[in-house]
C-alpha cells in the first residue's frame, strides 16, 4: 500500500525542519499546514503547466466560428464558393462532439487563388497557436516525399507520423500540399484513418482534420469560369454543382496526380472538393490593398489605391486578348509591392 501524498509531504516537511526529537504541538501544526499548502500547489501545478505550455486541451484548441467567418469575408477575395463551403464544413464538424469520421477537405485551383491561405485561416481559428501549433502538421510532396524509389518507405512513415500525432492529440490537423506532385498510391496508405472506424489499434481519428491542396482540377475550374464570363453571367452564379463532379473526376483520372485512382475518392472519403476560382483584376487590387493595410499596421504607410492598381496592371492575364484572369492570382503581390513602394 502506498503512503498518502499528505503523509509523505508531512514527513518531508518534518525532515526539512530538522525535527528529530519530541515534536512540539506548534511545530506539528505548522508542518501539517505546510503539507496542506504543498498538496494544494501540486494539485494546481498541472493546470498552471497547461496555461503556459501548449496542450491538447480547450485552453489551446477551440473553434472560433465568428473569427473564421470574418476572416473569410474580409481577407479572402473572389472565392464565394470556397468561403461558403469552408465555413459550413468546419463549423459543422467542430460543433459535433461525436463525428463519425475525420473532416476531409480537398482544395483545388490554380496557383495564387488562396488554397494555402484558407488552410492558414482554419488553423488560426481552431488552434491558439495557429500554424505554429504543434498539433498542425504540414506535408509538402516535393520536400517530404521526393523519391519515387522510396514509395514503400514513405507509406510506412506517413502512417506512423499520423498515428503518433493523433495518439498525442485527437484534434490534430494534417495539411498535404502539392497533391498534384505526390506519387500516385502514397496517399492511399492513410485511407483507413479517413474512414468510418471508431478506433484503429486503440486510436480514434474521428476528430482530426485532413486538408489536401492541389493545382489539379484547375483547368476544369478555369473553363467553367470562362464559360460564365463569355455568357455574360456573374461569377457569383457559379455553384458547387457546376464544378464538384468535374473536379473530382479530373483529379481521379490524372495519372500525374496524387489522387490518381485513389480509394479516397473511390470510397467517397473526401467530404468536399472545394474549387478556387481564377482571380480577376478587381480581386488582385483587393489583395494588394489588404497587404498594404497589413503593412500599415506594422508601421508602414497607409494603403494606396493607385499603387494597388499599378501592381494589378503589371501582372499577366489570360486569355491573351481578353485579359480576364490573373495567371498567378495574388501570389506575387508581396514582391510587387516591395518594388512599387
Automatic annotation (TrEMBL):
Keywords, ordered alphabetically: ATP-binding, Endoplasmic reticulum, Glycoprotein, Nucleotide-binding, Signal
Keyword Signal appears in the UniProt entry: yes
The name this protein goes by in its record: Torsin
Gene Ontology MF terms in the entry: ATP binding; ATP hydrolysis activity
Gene: TOR1A
Homology family: Belongs to the ClpA/ClpB family. Torsin subfamily.
Compartment(s) where it occurs, according to its Swiss-Prot or TrEMBL record: Endoplasmic reticulum lumen
Binding site for ATP: 109-116
Boundaries of every Torsin-1A C-terminal domain copy: 279-340
Signal peptide: 1-22
Lineage start: Eukaryota, Metazoa, Chordata, Craniata, Vertebrata
Any one Gene Ontology cellular component term annotated for this protein: endoplasmic reticulum lumen
Highest rank taxon of the organism: Eukaryota
Coiled-coil intervals: none
InterPro entries associated with the record: ClpA/B, P-loop_NTPase, TOR1A_C, Torsin, Torsin_1/2
